[in-house]
Amino acid sequence: MYGGILGLHSLLRWALIIFLVINIIRVNVEANEHFDKVDRTWSLRLLITTHLNLLAALYLYFFGDNGLKMLQREKYTMSDVTHTSWLRFWIIEHPIMMLVSIVLITISHSYSKKDLEPAKKHRTMSILYILALIIIFAAVPWPFRMEGIARPIFRALY
Question: Which of 8, 88, 128, 142 is the most core-located residue (most Cβ within 10 A)?
Fold first, then answer.
């Protein structure tokens, strides 16, 4: 079950990034147009994908090999976590940065429901989406990252 959820988490990450890029393009191209049903649908797809990925991530964090289970198994202290870069990444940095990006995406979706002038709504959503994308890119364990952090592009193939 762990491997399946890990693969799902990786797959949802790519869907999330794709939906996020689509939403960034849409809100910038249609900056002065009204926010219509299609825009709301894309925003909702992103929100659902983000929250499904959060559920998979919570399972992995509490029951997976790189989460709290690892701390208990290896008897790491918080001092070990803060002084070891790969431990700090998995226990603190990755979860917090991803939670911040989820909050930004959720705020952006709630902002899409407000009745505001299109230019202001699109500009605010664009800023929130771009910030979320930057944070996600910084927090993903890309293959070129240091040992202990680096993971394959698609985790289910590993």
Answer: 128
